[in-house]
Write a structure and sequence with these properties.
With about 190 residues, this protein is mainly α. The chain is built from 4 helices and no strands. The chain has one domain. α1 runs antiparallel to α2, α1 packs antiparallel against α4 and α2 packs parallel to α4. It is elongated, with a radius of gyration of 23 Å.
């Protein structure tokens, strides 16, 4: 699951970047198209409509997948934190394992939360821009802030998840070594 979260973070980041570049193309088409002006055969309106549909569909897919990835980061560190806490208590292990997983959560939770908020804001402002209720610049700034925060979250989460996987492997080895020495009995899998 840990590497699936990383893959989803990166895939959604790519989708958001592509969405932004499609949006810039859309912005140019919208600037050239003024409703009510001459549009022989409706070609300009059709081009704007097709570009907008691509932009909206990819924005929806990228935003939802990014929101899901950011949410999964919270659940991942909560879940592994609970498992490590149980293992430390059950097998009388070094408390540094708890400190490490708390440090991972601290490094990722704040930026993941900010990315969640920025992603929602950018998407909502995009709807306002589509209806011309919000200036295009407001949506652009919000979108780039959201992409930057999501990228930062992806970077921080990738590092923390990789370190957490190593911590879980180390914890597993410690528990197995204690069991082989007869210091503990493993009754069930905790981690």
């Amino acid at each position: 699951m840990s590497y699936a979260i990383i893959a989803l973070e990166l895939a959604s980041l790519i989708a958001l970047l592509v969405t932004a570049f499609i949006g810039y193309g859309l912005g140019g088409e919208l600037a050239a198209f003024v409703p009510g002006t001459a549009d022989p055969g409706g070609l300009v309106a059709a081009a704007v409509g097709a570009t907008f549909r691509r932009h909206f569909a990819l924005a929806l897919l990228g935003t939802l997948s990014a929101l899901f990835a950011e949410s999964m980061i919270f659940f991942y560190f909560i879940g592994t934190g609970v498992a490590i806490k149980k293992a430390v208590a059950l097998y009388d292990l070094d408390r540094r394992y708890l400190q490490q997983v708390r440090a991972f959560k601290a490094r990722t939770s704040g930026v993941a939360f900010l990315a969640l908020l920025a992603l929602i804001a950018a998407f909502v402002l995009g709807g306002g821009t589509a209806t011309r209720a919000v200036p295009r610049l407001g949506h652009e700034i919000a979108a780039w802030v959201a992409i930057a925060l999501h990228g930062w979250s992806a970077w921080a989460s990738t590092r923390a998840i990789r370190e957490n996987v190593g911590l879980l492997a180390e914890l597993d080895q410690v528990v197995r070594a204690k069991a082989q020495r007869g210091e503990i009995a493993i009754e069930r899998t905790v981690v």
